[in-house]
Amino acid sequence: MATVNFSVPEQVKKLFNATFSGKNKSQVIADLMLKAVEEQRRRKRRVKAVDALLALRRKLMPVMTRKSMLPVSGDATDATGGGCQRSREMDISGQ
């Protein structure tokens, strides 16, 4: 078995020793190191997957263009509230 030396803040050492009192601390550290390795590998896979999806997305034509997403003037379903904008302005001004 290999020996590894780490310097940690005294408070971390105290908390670790109190938390894992009576446990095989070498095994606890080894388990934590393996978990850290696994987590780092997962992060790298996620980054690679996201990058692949973004690259694919850049290659594909959009299903909708910005122009096709713009609301029709006066449409009750448009994002600006359609004909309701004028009534909101009137409420604010008190007229």
Describe it for me?
The chain is an all-alpha fold. The protein has a domain at 7-63. The chain is 62% helix and 0% strand. The chain is built from four helices and no strands. The chain has helices spanning 10-19, 25-59, 66-69, 84-93. The longest helix has 35 residues, at 25-59. The termini are far apart.
Quick overview:
By secondary structure, the protein is mostly helical.
Keywords:
single chain, 95 residues, mainly alpha, 62% helix
The radius of gyration over CA amounts to 29 Å
The SSE string, one letter per element, is: HHHH
Query: What percent of the residues sit in helical stretches (DSSP H or I)?
Result: 55-70%
Overall mean pLDDT: 82
**Main β-sheet, in a few words?**
none
Whole-Å distance between the termini? Answer: 83 Å
Shape: elongated
* Amount of beta strand: under 5%
Spans where pLDDT lies below 50 across 5 or more residues:
82-91
**From the structure provided, what is the oligomeric state, counting identical versus distinct chains?**
single chain
Structural class: mainly alpha
Number of strands: 0
Query: What is the number of helices?
Result: 4
